[in-house]
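Inputs:
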Amino acid sequence: MVGKSEPGVVTLREVAEVAGVHPSTVSRALNPATSHRVSKAVVRRISETAERLGYRANLVAASLRTGRSHLIGILVPDIANTVFSPILSGASERLAAEGYLTVVADVPDGGRQLDLARSLVARQVEGLLLAAVTRDDPLVDYCIAQRLPAVLVNRSEARRRLSSVVSDDALGMQLAVDHLMDLGHRAIAQIGGPESTSTGYNRHRGFLAAIAARGLAPEAAPCESAEAYAREAGQAAAHRLLEAHPEITAFVAANDLLALGCYDALKARGLRCPADVSVVGHNDMPLVDLVAPPLTTVRISHREMGWEAADLLLQGMRDPSASTRTLVLAPQLVVRDSTARPRTAARRRGAG
Amino acid sequence: MVGKSEPGVVTLREVAEVAGVHPSTVSRALNPATSHRVSKAVVRRISETAERLGYRANLVAASLRTGRSHLIGILVPDIANTVFSPILSGASERLAAEGYLTVVADVPDGGRQLDLARSLVARQVEGLLLAAVTRDDPLVDYCIAQRLPAVLVNRSEARRRLSSVVSDDALGMQLAVDHLMDLGHRAIAQIGGPESTSTGYNRHRGFLAAIAARGLAPEAAPCESAEAYAREAGQAAAHRLLEAHPEITAFVAANDLLALGCYDALKARGLRCPADVSVVGHNDMPLVDLVAPPLTTVRISHREMGWEAADLLLQGMRDPSASTRTLVLAPQLVVRDSTARPRTAARRRGAG
DNA sequence: GGAATTTGTGCAACCGTTTGCACAATCAAG
DNA sequence: CTTGATTGTGCAAACGGTTGCACAAATTCC
């Protein structure tokens, strides 16, 4: 016989019995939304009894009855990735304010996402925050088919069928490119992220657009995309670029880890940063201000991103007919020491 | 009328009706643990029907009946802190393997921990992983009083009333001190963490013990504890120590962030690391291999820690009478470039 | 080939709340 | 002092599964 929970756990019924009222009255008295329907005196008696007995409502039972779990699921590709921590933190702050708790599912970017989502749905989560989608993700189809409120964070989906909160990737790239060109760079390469992610895709296009806007020929701006947002992948891409285009004086990376991989490649080739080659990252993740040299990067406020996504999700839950919205946060360029005038420009300037 | 979940959500009863059997039979057929009690043919028919109708069990309902939520709560002081991400990651990996999902509560180290814990209990979590306890924490009393399986991670409690998984702080300090003394340092200061945390307390004592074991006089090993595990606090403590003991040639920090704060203080005073002063950190958090200079530190495998804690929790849940255990993980010294021979020793060596 | 056992399915209670409805008591209005 | 509205409480049926028990049918055993 299961279900007979540990003795000592007080139920609503017991409180009712001790207080000498009907269970429904206890329920009403203890629920702030309905306690006005019970006389003051009884409310007090019940509250006292509940307190004395150490009564704690069983939210699982309440969930079953009301159909509301007050649980939100968050799918992240890698909790250990420092980018997601602030997103999580911001989201859970916003959700906690409304009485929601977050169930975190760390899903190793393989094909298990859908399983996880299903498992969360089985647990009656009321909404989903998705931080791990690709540009064309079956997860999105799933949420739509299930009419499950969901919001994308950090990455968006090609068809914009769900609300999302993202950084303005085009602007980020423009900031990076403008900064480098203002310094005098004229041979700028991009290390892009995986094209399957919106960030990889958009930052790549943003880079090209920024280059074109400044009138630089595409040949002067070669691109390579890394297979993953990882240091090793960045290093490999940087090597490929330097091999094919030795004239490069600056790198724009789609992500800080890629930028750090770029550092590795430069070091391996005996090139100094920023003296020989400048590097710009993206995200401004913790500690990149301390690496050598401190990384110039495009800052994204991931905490705010998480907060806003949670907020959007709450809105969507309240009003399922609300239109899907894309909230675009403006990134900010943080100039540190990994960018400087290119040697040629410096020389030219010295000569002029 | 709530509780009438969205139309289109298939229930057990509907599956039963379509398959022409009793709901209880469907329940048994779909549960791997009981499906052997149903004939092969019927199991298949039911499975097909369920599949066809897109049936998804409502785990909330199941929880209510069985008293098992398959939910584990994790209390962390700060999700955004990069130390906790791998703990979370390791724990959720282990728990997911047993069908448990994790509910993360990010609790800002104030007094709300108990509230959060209560809220998790109300949601019928089956166990708690506590990564945010102090050496004498009311949360521990609460878990014991509630007979709630709980395991401490990263930090332990003075009275060892709950199982915990921690790093061997004494050993960590010994590794750090031995390394520095082997290099020739004889004036080593410690920047400790908050004494209210077991890590702060134990690392401080470990440091003193290691110093004593090598026969160094306590006067040659001054200590300061930082108010928090934060860069600024480390910087302040380093300044205090350098002010009072200008002869210091090496710092042992209780945590990497404190060590990085120490870098800040050295820089502010025009001292070079490691040329003038060596620094050893603790944790080996992500990216400290890239800061300038790459940090020599005591590595703790936080991911493993989280995994083991989850494992211990599962054991404790299976057998509530099991004795509490303390699992001590051995840390490892990772030597990078922030430690070197002290100038005096180098000079002496050069002269000899 | 009849008794003893096993197998497969149905029945109904139960987990702990919530809530629409009913109804008595109290109050306000005329 | 009736009539009508309001207030406070109880009743019982949910919510969607799970499971002990009962019992018919199929199987095994001697």
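Chain A has three domains: 12-57, 71-167+302-329, 169-295+336-351. Flag for discussion at group meeting.
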